[in-house]
Structures are given as structure tokens and as C-alpha cells.
Structures
1.
Amino acid sequence: MKKIAGHLILLGILFFFLSAQEIQHEAIAINIEVAVRVFDGKTFIDTLTINDFEVLEEGIEQKIEAVYLIKKTKIQKQDELMENEKPIKTFAPKVSRNFVLVFESTEYVPKTADAIDYFFQNVMESGDTLLVTTPAKSYTFNKRSFGRYSREEIASQLKNKLRKDTLIANRKFKSLLKEYESLLQVPFEQDLHKETLKGILRQLRDHIYLSEKKLSDFSDYLKTMEGQKHVFIFYQKEVIPSLPDADPFEIMDLQKDVTFDAGKIKRAFSDSSISVNFIFITKTPELFDMSMEPARDIDKIDQSAQIYNAFRDIAVATGGIVDSSANAESSFQKAVNASENYYLLYYTPKEYIADGKFRRIEVKVKGKNYKVFHRAGYIAD
């Protein structure tokens, strides 16, 4: 009987302990920060207050506790939920800026150099950080960089590195093109000839390879940064030569496909509070020396569709801008100007549970038909 009583006491203590844990788990309060950009046409609306916004999480309206208007790195206006003439909660927005420029192309695009000049002349400030990823390497610029070199010198060095890295990274691509061009002139036996050409085209197709791990690691790295994170991806239209006399099934076999779960990547970037801006450079890369007779009548297979759709969705999910143009500088100006003005909204989710699930966020401006850009949500972890 004593043993049974002892077991009951032990179970009671254990039950109380687990219950206390559950109560503590449910009592966790977390603040959600959402960067929001509001436009009427092309004009940013900077006159909104806390009462103008509505935030829904999984369709349930949330109580907005504070709204801050940010221009570049300055808090221009703050509007907090009040009680007895005092703010219920005051936040400390981190408005430092981390810029990331990602260049992905099979040839050097001169207009990207103009975009770099514009960035250093009109955007970058002494307190900002900059990470640049070329097709071959990555470079970091911070306060020390500005202490050693002028803006013009840094921009000049970066443009030279981008040109050199693009050529280095695409040597294999160019080599494969030359091999393909040469084989077009060789009178091979038909089946062997076609299979050899297909093998080269598959290598050309997979030259730019974006894995789920690579993108997830990139998102995790950016998540560790304090302040606002603005990513600008310059992606040039990706084409390869078509196969001579190819049938539709052979063309389909040579089409590029994304190698990652786009939905998972969208959620990862959205959770990291990263604003991803996608700049699609529509200028078609030169493939062959078109004076060569065999290359004149070769069609091109556009490999960009799947990658374009994936990055467009990532940009939309993070509240970023998508723009397509042959003029990379013009597209960059639109994207970077849109990123410089925004609101930071704060709320505490109702009945928050850290279950690892993705929570969808929707921000509206009451009674207005404005364009509202913001991240799609966050992962409750």
C-alpha cells in the first residue's frame, strides 16, 4: 500500500511538473516585426498611422502595438498603441542596413557596372554593410573599407572583380560551346552525333546550378544579421543552343528545372525578414561567333522559365520587387528606391505556439486600394 501511495505521489508531482511546463510553454510571448511598403501607383505613401493598418495572422486579426516610419536608416515617425496616455509597449527598431548584391550570368553585362556605380554614389552609407556575390567569389565591404578607399575606388575594384570572376566562372561554359560548335561541322554517324551533342547540351544546361541547401544556407546566414536585409539578385536570361532537327520530346528533355522545393525556400527567406528583389536581365547572351556557318541557323532554348518563376515567388514572399529589363541599372534603381522607405509594424501573436509551422501574415490598409508589399509570414519556432 505504501508503494502504491508513493507511486501516486510521484505521478502527481510529475503531472504537476508537466502541467507547469505546458502553462509556461503557452505563456510565451513573442514580438513579430513586419516591414511594409505601401504604394499608390509608383508613389510611396508616408502619411499612414497605426490606425490605418490591419494585420491578419492565419486570417485572425492581430492587435498592432507599434508602427514606425523608416526612411533609409532614420525613424521619421513612431506611432504606438496607448493606454492611460502611455505606450503599452515601446520597441527599438534595428534600422541598420545590410545589402547583398548577387550576380548570376554566363557573360559580363556592362549595365551591371552602371548599377554598381549608382549604388556607391546614391545608396551606400558609411554605416551600411555590403556583401557581393559574383559567379566565382564573394566580397564583403564595411566601415573599414570606406576608411581605406574612396567610393569611386571601391566601385572600380568591384567592377573589375565582377568582370574577371564572370569570365573565370564561365570558362567551362564557353569551352563547351566551342566544342559543340566544332562538332556541328563534323560528319558523324547520325545517332552517335546526336547523343554526343545532347551530352554537351546537358552540361551547358546544368552550368548554373542552384540547390536547396545552397539557398537554405544563404537564408540562414542572412538571418544572423541584425538590422534590415536587402538582397538584389541580378539574373541574366539563360540560354543554350538547340539540338539540330530536335523533336519536342528532345527539347523538353533539355529544359532546365529547379532542383529545390520553391515553397520551402520561400518560407525560409520570409521567416528571415529578408527583402529579396529579383532583377531579370532580358539581354540574351551571345553563344557563338555567328560568322561561323554551322551556328547561323541554330535556335536557342531559353532555360530561364523555372528559375525566373522560383525567384519571382521568393521576391513576392519577402515583400521585394520583381523587374525585367535589358537595362540592369534601371531595374536596380527601381528596386533600391522602393526598399529605402518602409514601415515597421509590431504585434504579439494571439495564442502563440512554437510548433515549427509557418504562419501566414496579411497586411492591409483600411479603406484604400494601395499596393502593399510585406513578407508572407514566419516560422513559429
2.
Amino acid sequence: MTRRQFSRRDLLRAAGSTLTLPLFLQRAFADERPRPPNLVLLMQTNGTNQENYWPSGDGFDSPILHDLLSNPALASKTTLLKNVHLDLTGEPDGNPHDQGFHGLFSGFAGRGQGTPDVFPGGASLDHVVARSAELGRPIDKIHCGVHAANYQIINAGRASFSATGPMQVAPCELDLYKLYRKVFGEPIDESPAARAAAAQRFRERKSVLDAVAGDLQTLQNRLGPGERSKVDLHLTAVRDFEKRLADNAAPPPVCSTIRPSRTDVPSEGQGNEANAEPLLRLFMEFMANAIACDMVGVLSFQFGRGGEHFHYDWLNIPGMPEDAHDFVAHLDDGSDPNITRISVGIKRWYTELVTDLATRLDAFPRGEGQTALDDSLIVWGNEIATGTHTLDNMPLALVGRAGGRLKRTGYLVDAGPQAHHRLGTTVLNLMGVPAEGFGLLPECGVLAGLELDV
């Protein structure tokens, strides 16, 4: 990425040692290089129906992805990665559910060390990025998900795909309301008395710019036209914000007052699938808010546990069997139109969730006509390619423009067979971490067919 035209060093050089500059103005020019985008890793389970997932013909749409790709704004920021295969380098333990659940975002084979439980063979991408990238957010990373299923977990390793290292699973945070408190703080007091006190404080407090008005004028006289306009932009934004606070006697900015739209859903949800659907939607809302407010650098999320056995009662699909894992996903080989119909209905519902996340992000404005979705990279993956346990042609989508580091979006990439390790290499480079490979393939390179600006 190119260096900013006007940096904090330039600002301080122009100010010299005689001027006092507001801290916010110094911080606004603090970074020589742009920060990496916000990263979201989404792990779905049980594969997809290949025939109905990938666009065919000349159009960029499909039955399963229709909700996402039929929205022109979102479709233009979505990139589908076809022909990426889960490479079994390292001879992983476990069945394909375990191999993909632990391998897709780590590049390492799953390991059981002689036990029925399969755990990650190495650190997952969320932790690698959090350790290596200069994220510059209040919270580096959060790994969360929903485990609300009326089914006993197959093995302990399927509780989380996030790992700090070999055989070291990071816990999946399930308490939605605890996460809201962690990211946004305790709910503020919005009583009439509290609002009146806030209004009085705003009336009594002069602008932070007033105390240094003379120095700012001197600084602007020392700058060229281009630099002066950039400083003017920041000063105008602060003055306008202060005016709106004083006029409305508002509480602190929206990002310090965000809370869940519902609080009546038991957060843990474990063992009660009735909580799964509302919790999954609330987590999409939470992630969108956390990213839009730029509070978290990396968010990783799992739609259930590895090889999940949801029944999907909330979808009311005619003919839905009791266990969609055994009696839909495992039978989804194209031979039964009824199974295909049910499978497509389930997979399309996951698209609704991802579309909700993307829509919320695209509604948050960022500078120069951009949105929070433009500044983000959502990597939507799956533990297997199909419910029948195949690992070729993994369903993968990138949503967002990664802060402009994805030079081209809104198309399907098919550059021939590629190992999934290239996905990790690509994400690292998009996040500002130079890498030639990932996991067990240290020199595999980035995904062919993508146009990157890194």
C-alpha cells in the first residue's frame, strides 16, 4: 500500500516546537501506513450442494447465494473462489468433518494423538493475524459462535476451530451479552436526570479547539494547500461533532451505546436448539456493530460445532427429517430431488445470515464514500465441500474489499485446482503480513486469479 501523502511526521514538522496541537489531530495522522482491514472468518458446517451453490452461465447468481448476489451493492463486493481443494498434506486424523474444521483456517492437519478426539495441528488464521498484523483496534480478536444443538458433541475438538498452536484449542465464546459488555461497555444511564446532567456539561465545556485556536491558525499558515485541506477536514469534523452534541445534549457516540436488539434469548443456548436461530441472527448483529465501530481487529465465528446436527425446525421446510446431518447432508449426492430441495433450503438460510452481516456493514459510512464493508474482509468457508464428505471445490466466498487491497471484486475466480493453503497466504498478505505460504505449505503462494494491492 502506498504511503499517506501527509503523515504525523509532516504535521509535527510543520508545527515545530512552539505550537500546541490537539491530541486527536496528532492521532489522526499517527500512522504512516493504513491499518489492515477488519477480518471476519466464518466457519459453516456440513458442506453445500455444489450444483446450486456456484453461478452458472454468464450470470453472477445461484439458488443458494441468491440473497447475497441479487443485491447489486453486495454482489459487487463479493468474490467467489472456485476450485480450491482441502489439501490433506500432513495425513490428518479424524474424518473429513474434522479435517476441514481444523485445517481450512490453519493449513495444518488435525491431530488426535491416538485418541478419538481430534484437535488442530497448528495455529489458526485468526491467531496468526492477531499476532502478526498491526491491527490498531482496542481489541485484537474475538472467537465466538453458537452451540445451541440438541445433540451430544462427537469429540471435544469439534467445540472450536480456533487454535493458538498444535493441540491448543481456543475456547469459543458463547455468551453474547458478555461480549457486548466486553466490546461496548455497560449500558449507559439514559434517564432524564442523566441526560440533563450531560447537557449541562456540554453547555459548560468550550470546544477543545478553542484552547489552541491561535496555534492551529499558525499551523495552517505554514502548510501547503493540500496539507491544509486535510487538516481542515479533521477540524471541521470535530467542530461539527461538538455542535451536534451540544445541540442535542446527546449521550456519547452511538458506538458506546450499542446493545443487542433482543435480550430475551438465553445466551449459552447449549442443549436447546430453540435458541439457535435467534442467537445466530443476534451474533451477526453483534459482529457488524463491533466492526462498524472499529472495535475489533479479527472476529472468527462458527455456525455451530464441527459436523453440527441441527434439525432446523425454524425453517419449516416440508419433509425435513429429524437430523439434517445424517438424513440430508450425508445423502445429498444429487440422486434424490427431495433431498436436494431440503439441502438448498438449509444452505440458502445461511446465506441470509451472511447477507444480514454484509448489509449491516454496508450501511455504516466510512470516509470518501466508502462503507465498513469496503474496509472489511469476510472469509466465508465450510469444513467440507459436500455433505457426502468430499473435500474438492470447497465453497468459499470473500465479501468486502479489504480496504481496497482486493483490487477487483464481484466475480467468480476459477484458476484451476488450488490448495487451500493459498487461502491463508492470501488473507495474511491482505492483512499486511507478508507471507509466501501458510501452514504445511510454506511456499505455496497466494490464490491465483485474484488481483491484490499489497
3.
Amino acid sequence: MNVWLWCATALVLALIPLALLAALRPPHHGVVALAAAGAIAALALLLLSEGTRRQGFADLAIVVAVGSFAGTVAFLHFLARIE
């Protein structure tokens, strides 16, 4: 294991408190946690890509980043319609 993979592991472990926060807090707090989790997941995939020297993980990181942003905007739109 190299430094890139250790850092990716640390970022993946940082997703655990964000998942708990998203599950246990009100929806407004959960949306912020999910947006942060999407950014951290994309960074973890980029580190995994560099650590394993595989381009596919970097492509997946771009998809995760765009999907996370679009999902956050959609969730906020529907959350605003409920209230």
C-alpha cells in the first residue's frame, strides 16, 4: 500500500460520521452531510485512481461529483416543495 491508498482509506472512514449525521438529523442538516459525503467520495476515488494507476476510478470520480451535485439540488428542490 502506498500513501495514496492510505489517504483514500482515511477519507472513506470520514464518510461514516457523515452517514450517521445524515440519518439522525433533520433533512436540512442531512442534505449538507450528503453534499459533503459526495465531495469526499469523489476525492477518495481520485486518490484510489492515483494509488492504483487506473484511469477508470478517475472517470468514476467525475461521475460521482456531478451526480452528487445534481442529487443535492434535486433533493433541495423537493424539500422546498414539501415545506
4.
Amino acid sequence: MVGVVAAYQRDPDMAPDELFEPGRLDHLVAGNSCRLLDARRTPLRVLAVRPDIGFFDVEVLAFEDRGVTWELPLEWVERLQFPLDGATAPPSDVARLDDARQRFDHRLDLDVDLVARQETMERLVDERSQTAAWFDSAASPWGSSSRHLDPDAAHGDPLLIADLDAYLKRRGLADLERRFATGYVSNPSSGDLVKAHAIVAAELGLAPYCGPILRDPDALRGAFAADRRASHLLARLGYVSTAFRAAGHGHVVVHRGMSFEHAVDWRPTGTFVSTTFSLDIATSQSALGPNRTAGVLMHQRVSVDRLLMTHHETGPMNDRFHEAEAVLLADPTALF
């Protein structure tokens, strides 16, 4: 089992919650500082407010994502806290923001269409054949090696990471891979990037989708068109499952740890489910703390056919965060 626990950066001198108040729409003023209501109260700064597409931009001011910009939905202001003396927007601006929030704060429910799923499963057979042929070719760095893959390794395999990059370049999907993987690792809820991938996955019949609607009209245009997103999803699924099977692994054990500030909130897992190969990391994610009153730790053996992305072949999962992560397709009949 992986013996490395992710050492998340924290502020030992974090200011107490009493110096802040719950976020409201009138707090969304460019330049205002705020904090995310996560366990370590990640500090942020509002950069811009965009009621036309229902987002506001924040800069992460500390920890591993320092300097990164996130696009947060307007309703997420309730997941933030602001200093008591922060600036507030005039009533006219707040009215525009409230109108935008109501316009965009709707959910989309997509069940698995069995006809679409059958067609996708047939496409995945071809994807796995393409990957197997790639591994047998001289162009594949990992396929030309020992094809070793230890699910419990703490870090990704540089050879396998380079191999996936070469494979997706050949498929004309390397640009989409970089954007998707980097975005998912930083914050899968930022903007419509990951959300649009999840909706396309549901339309393919891979897993259900229950979540916010798309807000940005460019989310499914140009380089991000639905057909390119579908090609990326299928290429990745075919590559990852074939790599694990080539290394002798038809199933893997993954873990999921969660902690809660107040009451346990059993939200749907979403189309993509973040898990870890490391029991130690999952245990740390379920730990109690000063602002965490409940925790849950779960384990499951899953087919490698559910693996969309893991730290073994994904470069960004080995840069700032080291969580031995495995991203699964959701399965409503499974534990997670």
C-alpha cells in the first residue's frame, strides 16, 4: 500500500472564523479578499464578476494552487466567507447578480441511455484495440519497455506519462488533454471545462450526469466541441484500461475519504468520482479537525474499465498535488 500521505500546505496562524461573515452577492466586488469554506480556509481574491455567464473569477492566494484563477458559479459565494470590513456592491449591481444567479442556477439530469451506451461500448472495443496496437509499436515508450505498472506506487511512472502524451499527440488530442487534466487537478468545479466533459460522458451513456447546466456558450465550440471531447474521453478510457490490463491488473482497490463541517452531506458523486489508491491519503481526507466534525472512509475494488484518469499516466497529478489519485466513471449501483 502507498505509504506517502499528501502533505497539504496549511496556515498555522489561520485567522478565526469570527473575523469573517458568510458570503453574499454584495461581497462580489473586484479586489475583495475572501476564504473558501474548506478545512484549511483557502484564501482567495475576487478578480472579476461576470453576470453574463453566471461566474465570478478568483485568484488563489496561498497553498499549492497559489496564483491560479478559478471561475466559480455565482451561487458559490455562499461557500465563501469575507472579512467583516470588506467592500460591498451597490443594490443595482446586486440585483443584476441575483437575476443572473436565478437564470443560471438550474440543474441538468441525464440518465444513461442504453442504446447510446451500447454504441459507446462498441467504440471502446476499437479504442482498446488501437491502444494495444500502439503498445506493440516501436513508437510506444512504455509498450517497448517491461510494461510494469504498480497500482500502489506513490508517484506516476514518467515513462507511462510520456507514453500517454505521445499517444494523444498522435490522436490529435494533446491540447484537450492538457486543459482537462490541469483543470481537473486544480478545481473540477472551475468554469465549464470539466462539467462539459461530464455532460458529454453522460450523452455517450458512460455514466449519469446530475449537476449544473452549462453557462459559457463557448464550452462546446471549436477545440472544445462535443465530438472532440467524446474522442478524448474514449481515447483515455481505452488507453488506461488497456495499460492496466497489459500490466496484469483487471481490478484495482481504491479508497475515498471525506470530512464534513457540520451535518454529513451525501451529495451525488457526480459523473466523475475522485478516489485514491492510497489508504493513508484517504484516511487523512476523512480526518476530523477544528472545523470538521464528521468523517467517512470507504474502500472498493473496481474494474479498470471504470478508470478515466490516474496519477500513473497523468503528469499534472504529480506536479503540485501528490494524492495517488484515480478518477472513476460513476456507477450508481456501486458504493461510489
